[in-house]
Amino acid sequence: MVLLNLLRSAAVALMGVGFLLSASGTVSAKVEGDIVYLGAAISLTGKYSTNGAHTRRGYDLAVEQINAAGGITVDGQTYKLGIIYYDDESTPARGAQLAERLIQQDGVTFILGPYSSGLTRAMAPITEKYGVPMVEANGASISLFQEGYKYLFAVLSTTEQYLQGAIALAAETADEGQILRVALAMENDPFSQDVRAGVIADAERLGLRIVIDDKLPPELNDMSATMAKVRALRPDLLVVSGHAKGAALAIRQIADSRIDIPMLALTHCDAAQVIEKFGEKAEFALCASQWAPGLSYSDELFGSARDFADLFEATFEYAPPYQSAESAAAVMVFADAFERAGSFDPAAVRDALAATDLMTFYGGINFDEAGRNVAKPMVLFQVQEGEYRVVYPSDTAEASFIHPTPRWSER
Questions:
Q1: Quick check: helix, strand or coil at residue 184?
Q2: DSSP structural state of residue 321
Q3: Largest alpha-carbon pair distance within the chain?
Q4: How far is residue 380's CA from residue 388's CA, in Å, rounded to a whole number?
Q5: Contact assessment for residue 111 and residue 93, using Cβ atoms and an 8 Å cutoff
Q6: Which of 107, 186, 332, 409 lies most in the core, judged by the most C-beta atoms within 10 Å?
Q7: Top-level CATH class of 161-289+378-410?
Q8: d(CA 186, CA 213)
Q9: 161-289+378-410 shares the fold of 19-157+293-366
Q10: Is 33 exposed, middle or buried (0-12, 13-18, 19+ CB in 10 A)?
Q11: What is the rounded CA–CA span in Å between residue 296 and residue 290?
């Protein structure tokens, strides 16, 4: 059973901060009895609430599994993990305030990241200022790792890699001498604009031409203007990045307007539950993903990637989106670093995080000097017969890429 009494949307009201004696001296940590607390400000309300819920469930499941397996051993003593949650309301300013509160008022010295690059960008300067390690799983913007942060570590692949597979697959479909035309519809937020930059760079490198380049408003409720351009210009590939809301909106409006697109590539398909919500309308869409249940990764805690997926579905009654998988991996990274550091001293844990070399059900985790995970590639699904099938990269593909997407009149 998930630790419901410890994991509330508001902060867990706890009195007293334990003091530990470790090999590095007397240090203060958020410890009560045999529980060491991590802090997390995530989007439980607001526009990112869907992905915020996926993030929290990944954190919760990892905490439950680690504790059920006996917890962690630090300097010869056994501890369990707990999490203090706050709702950042999907607002960067609120996220920054809550990072301060977790550190200054709650005494938390280890932070699990929020959902989205924008919220991570707001919190990172705070954790850096106080020398508090943050392991994050849902802020993929490459620009986060160009600021010189020493206490920020990300288990996921960065944004420029998200839709490289879609551009590569499109280039492979081109006839000799054909210049494929690409339409972009990207939310005007740090994550999606970094995805855009990566797509443009790859398109230029491979000789594809951008014919539509729309920036979508953060409050994303309608894409009809972009869809009118797509209908008129008939691009070979439409690329959409707008988190879960953008993926759902694109699928719905393309289907409702019966717009024929030979190739559609999206971020956040699984988080948006496009198969469950739209059924046949989502068929043939390409979906960027950090992780897939069919991958061959495994570890001692969860078992295989498929084992994690089965446990998650049994616990929460839906298949895990990659946001949940990467969030669970972030908790595992902290647990591993605590044990190797032999201390809850933030500086010692930071150094242990920097030296991480870990294989998990989610994939390999090894951080470069900027704090990026350089041990795990992205994958690309295609929706085929109501299921996600990995079609890229080729060495992990479980199905052949279907192209072009059949016209609506032929379905």
A1: strand
A2: P
A3: 72
A4: 9
A5: no
A6: 186
A7: alpha beta
A8: 8
A9: yes
A10: exposed
A11: 14
Do 152 and 128 touch, CB atoms closer than 8 A?
yes
DSSP assignments along 206-230, one per residue: HT-EEEEEEEEPSS----HHHHHHH
Side chain identity, residue 328:
A
Is the pTM higher than 0.85? The answer reads no
* Tokens 């307007």 -> residue: 257
Q: E strand or H helix at 337, and its extent?
A: helix 322-341
β 77-87/31-32 pair status: unpaired
19-157+293-366, CATH topology level: Rossmann fold (3.40.50)
If you write DSSP's letter for every residue of 236-251 in order, what string do you get?
Answer: SEEEEE-HHHHHHHHH
Residues in the chain: 411
Local confidence pLDDT in tens for the 411 residues of the chain: 433 333 333 333 332 333 232 323 333 568 888 999 999 999 999 999 999 999 999 999 999 999 999 999 999 999 999 999 999 999 999 999 999 999 999 999 999 999 999 999 999 999 999 999 999 999 998 999 999 999 999 999 999 889 989 999 999 999 988 999 999 999 998 889 989 999 999 999 999 999 999 999 988 899 999 999 999 999 999 999 998 999 999 999 999 999 999 999 999 998 899 999 999 999 999 999 999 898 889 999 999 999 999 999 999 999 999 999 999 999 999 999 999 999 999 999 999 999 999 999 999 999 999 999 999 989 999 999 999 999 988 877 889 999 999 999 999
In the numeric block, which tokens belong to residue 411?
A: 């379905």
Structural domain boundaries in the chain = 19-157+293-366, 161-289+378-410
**If you search the block for the tokens 């959409």, which residue do you land on?**
240
Q: What tokens appear for 356 in the block?
A: 């991480």
